[in-house]
User: Fold Dioxygenase from Novosphingobium pentaromativorans US6-1.
Amino acid sequence: MAQTSDFFAPQAFEADVIDCQVEGTIPDGLNGAFVRVGGDWAYPPKHADDSPFNQDGYISRFRFRNGRVDYTGRWIETERYRNNRAAGRQLYGYYRNPYDCEPEVANIDEPWRNTLANTNVEVNAGRLFALKEDAPPTEIDPVTLKSKGLFTFGGDYGSQTFTAHPKVDPATGELITFGYEATGLASDDLVLTIIDRDGAITRETRLKVPYVSMIHDFAITEGHVIFPVFGYVTDLERLKAGKIHWTWDREAPTWFGILPRDGEANDLRWFKGPNRAIVHTFNAYTRGDTVVLDAPIFDNNPFPFFPSADGSEWDALKSRALIRRMIFDLNSKDDGYREEILFPDLPVIDLGRVDDRFMGRETRYAYTSFNDPAQPIDRDRLGTGARRVINSYGVFDMHDRTMRSFYAGPTHALQEVTFVPRAADADEGDGWLIGTASNYAEMRTELIVADARRPDEGAIGRVVLPFRANVQIHGRWYSDAQLDFGPDAGMESQK
Ligand code: V55
Ligand code: FE
Assistant:
């Protein structure tokens, strides 16, 4: 369990901060909102060794307007959150296991009702969604951040689940999404769904996976979708025995399923490789008969809280991600693919992002956070709370195989980095790196803005919260043109 003194300790309040303290400057034109989702324990977990992915969802927003920034933080009011609040205690058991919940809330045949919506956000047709891969989206009011309940596209959505990492095609505005365990707990059905920019479902393709696995993220190209199936496995017996949803099987091969975006189930082709963990992707593209996928990839179990099937201890050293490129030949006669390590000596956090305006197209730059051991660390002020200190953002040039970095300082630990373009028509990579940092010296959260072309010059601006906000899983930037966040906070009374 988290210590009460660190950034992972529960922080069970909602917040509205008007005109946050700003150090440095917020660039002109940076108008919109950074919306982030994470988890926090509204009530302590039933099991001390449970996954932090089982925390109640919490959504927060940094709203940028002409150099001023307002902050709002709200619980995501899922059915599960409301049931726990009514009972005043934790009714739910291990991560994604209804058999371990108290019977009146188990929902064994409707497991999506137990979702926490704690992983990511996405926007479609003016609606803001909080997402977790075990359920349909939870709709959130973009003005108040109040939860509006599960959203199933007027009942048309055909899977019990919806990934936390859908992709928006920048040319069509389509939301391309999927759900695995789509027809019930531990089911081997995967449903790919394409939703147009107006929120109508235009295509649904029902697929089978080689084995039931965590398919946390996927990738799109202009012509294909790519599903990684890897090491985390489950089955109904495991769940009925009351165990945590996933176990790591180091014998399980990695499969990549590649499907033409307009293909049918029998057009799905599976490529097979050695045991790996592909939790997140950077981007992918199709060139002729070749599909290329870039991703930070682990050689072993990434998460200590999902136990190994063979009983072996979790190995932090083997569980580091390296940036790799997978190359698939659609003309090949066998099911193999090529794997290349692009930055061999540089383990990274696998929260990879690209300039979303080029999703599905070949991108030159990839962004993620990492620990730069050459930079100073103030151990006295960091204390023991920070386990791995992620002190840098990397701008990875996938073409020249070079890297430039932003260093946050000796008392700061970084969360996921997000790229914001300088303008809608700026070149790829011309824009800002933004993300939250945990300042361990002051025990407060800061939002950092740096220039993505000159990251080594340091932060241009910092938005300082007067408290420690919960640690984010994923966040996204939406310009005012992409989503209407309503009047400035504090201005509602003047409407
Ligand atoms: C991940 C996160 C999740 C989850 C499954 O980072 C995988 C991977 C925050 O919840 O439920
Ligand atoms: Fe994720």
